[in-house]
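hi! just following up on the protien thing from before. the input was this:
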Amino acid sequence: MLRKSTLLLLAVLLVVGIFAPAALAQEEKITITVLNYFDLTAPGAERELEEVWREFSRRNPHIIVEREDLFLEAFHQKVEAYAAADRLPDVVFMWPGGRSTSLHTLGLVKDLRPLLGDDAQYFNPAVLAPQAAGYLAELPSTMTSSHALYINVPLLESLGLSIPETYEELVAMVPVIKGAGLDVILMGAQEDWVIQSCLFSMIVGRLVGDEKLHEIIRGEAKFTDPEFVNALEFYAQMYKDGVLDRKIMNINYSEVNGLFASGRAPFMIDGDWKTANFLTDVTTGEALIPVDQQPNFKMTIFPAIPGEITKKSSSGVVGTGYGMSSKIPDGSPKEAAAWELIKWLQSKEVQTMRLETAGTIPSRIDVTSDNIEPLVVERIRYYDDIEVYTEVLDNVLEGEVYLPLNVGLQEIGLGLATPMEVAERVQEALEAWRAKRQ
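and the predicted 3d structure came back as:
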């Protein structure tokens, strides 16, 4: 009997000895570093922290997430610093091109399509198209229109005016609006990307067209050709007509939210994502535009522009998402952990939350919600107004090319440069960039 007990004990110890390392391996902690683009002051920020990041940690206690949250230029500067030092975080917030072009073209992030596998069936096929370097470098959370015209309808009607269908109708409103002591169109254009992305990209789509734009990029045409210069001249004319005021370049990107919500102007131009700033903050129960007033606001596309070759269009692009550092070994536990995080960040649960808190149009086809505010409903409806999507310039141009354009657009508005001078400067930047690649 003693011998049998001893043999049984030895057998148990042997089994434990075989399986204990595997069990310990399952409990092994894996640390994932993340660089996240996040506005901590936005409505819904606390809900995002709780329902996205803390919830992921609760579901995956073996994955330790070390997250760095930055916003606007501070974020982009940090990305470039990390890239230059060759120490990109494991997971990084990205654009499909534009400000993230170097991450794509330098191969600093992995192709996520093989990791996505059968889960591709849950996403709109359009968002899974190859990106700047010809592969799926980031898994997009949405489709984005970088231009929308926001309208305070009761304010406009109180002036005896209605939503303009043509640019000429908009110009005719200027004396009435300014006579009431109001601005015509607000923009938070202190940062130089705003005019280019939220307004001028749309103008180029209308007056130049994507085909001509891509000819310029390929070197088969020039920014100094009449079509592009004409787009710059139309933009300059907006200041002469009083539709735009140079004071927009003194308004920072956050300040414009309160100005528009308080009725400083009947119109505002921004990306469709701006709706998030007016929604109810779940932590305070307050909103810049209260729910009962949100039906008073409308989103639409810019009125018809004289000489436009593309009609009823807006500039748009596949949305942002998260990429994975190419330094993570294929098939490693760290790759599995990083992918688990990226999958969660674009999961049905998270995209539903972002639809409810920010009105973000989901990239997944299985996301719905009855718990959305009127401005979110309006953002979804706004997409019906768009018949054609055209390129966003900072998505298809390299930073060395669009940055001079960004500055040039501000200089035109301030009367410091002519349209031709800006066109020449941008063409020189394009040729210099192309020469470096040869």
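The radius of gyration is 25 Å.
Residues 7-25 have pLDDT under 50 and may be disordered.
cheers
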